[in-house]
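Example record used in the benchmark description.
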Amino acid sequence: MFNKKGSAWSTVFWIFVVILITTVAIRHSMTNNLMYANLTANNGANEELQKQQYSNALEDERQLTADKENLKRLQKQQQEDYYKKQLEEEQQKQYEEEQYREQLGEQQKEAREEELRQQQKQEQENYYKQQMENEILEEQQKKYEKEQMRQQEDDYYREQQEQQYQDNPSCSTGWKCMDSNTKGYQYSNCSWTSLSNCKYGCGGTNCNPAPCTPGYLNEKKCSNNSVQQRYQYENCSTDWLNVENCSFDCQNGACKQGCQAGYINEYQCSGDWKQKKYQSSDCRITWVLHEACSNGCSNGQCNSESITMDSNSSLTINNGCSNGQCNSESESLTVSNVIDGDTIKLSNGETVRLIGINAPESGQMCSTEATSKLGELALGKEITLEKDIEESDQYGRLLRYVYASQIHINMEMIRLGLAHKYEYGQNTKYSAKFQEAENEAKQNQGCIWKTASVNYIQDKCLTVTYLHYDAAGNDNYNLNDEYATFKNSCNYPVNMANWTIKDNSSSNAYQISSFTAQSGTSFTLYTGSGTNTDTKLYWQRTSGEYQAVWNNSGDTLYFRDNQGNIVLTYSYSDGTFR
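Model output (structure tokens):
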């Protein structure tokens, strides 16, 4: 019974154990499944999180790259704006300098024109005054000669009549009054001859004199810009006649003295420009732009590296100053050969063309003198060269201003009348100074400006009446539409054989072979080809490149006689006769 009972409990025990184990196993399995499910869910969430983080990282990287690109573009734009601003400032500066240069050129041109106008006006006034005096004297001389001739004829006729009637005297002979208003000569037979009306009555043996003596009275007044003087006629009537044209102004019956127009050697600074004082004919003072100072201007002078000239064309070139002394030039060269009046050769083999001048070519008047003088100034000497705008010309020659022994050689050649002022390309730095030097040479009649003592020079009766320098179309292929017309206003014919006509260059010169300009006639010189006549001359140039003579931008005509004397010059850039 016990064994049976014990076996039953054992079975129950083991059943319980099996149930417990099964329960534990089931719980464990459920726990594992739950943990696996939780783990699986966590892993999925982590992947989503990682994907989101990765996506965020990619987006951040793209944003960083975009920011870097934007920063680069911004920096590039700022750099471009900076360079653009620099370029605009440089262009503005160049424009302002060009404006200054244009203003300087205009002011200097106006000053030259004003000076020329005053000179021409004074010459015209003197001419008309002389003409008036000559006409009065000529009229008086003619009147006197006519009276003398009439008197001689009357005396001759009277003598003939007296001889005829001397055998029958009945009246006293002689000049007497026929009545109160008539004068005549009475013969012995009582007849009359040479009767003349007495304007102011007749008394005794002669016509009564005029109540007043004709002539100018000591009374003057002003009329506009002229001086008038009262003139009294023999009938005592008076009139106001012009006796003088005032170049400046008229006050209280006399010309008021103005001022001589021209530059005054006083300077001041205006920014980076050096200005020179100019006085006009009405005594007004203006300051004219004179020189651009690359290193600034102080006390009326350009700072170092500028050039200062005195009245004798001497100068000092500064490259800065150290220990109270000017620094030496960077290079000194020696002239080994003088080719002509405006070209030299240096010791280093370079050829230099002196800019701003044009000397006569070989065989032309003053060419020998020009070459000789240039040799005297430069040959074998150490020189200093100054560049303007252009480095060299089409022949490879250096374009320079040349200085030796403190002398500006280019200017000295012009001042001595051995070269013309000639603007070579854009190299015009000393154009105004060179013009002053040329004016001085003309006044002193330097070599190329020497005038002859023959009549047509003194009379100034040969003139240019018209210069047609701009032919229709291409000037080089329409040469006979380029021409100059001259007039001989002399009261005598002028033989122009071997006279020359040339322009500002050294290569264009025309020599007249045989021609006589008759008094009061005009003749025309055509650049092209044709047959010469009494009124037409032809240069005989043929169509082609560089065949036209007269520059459309401005030029000067030079007319010389067969001795090389300058007869006239004519500048058509401003249409002014000089």
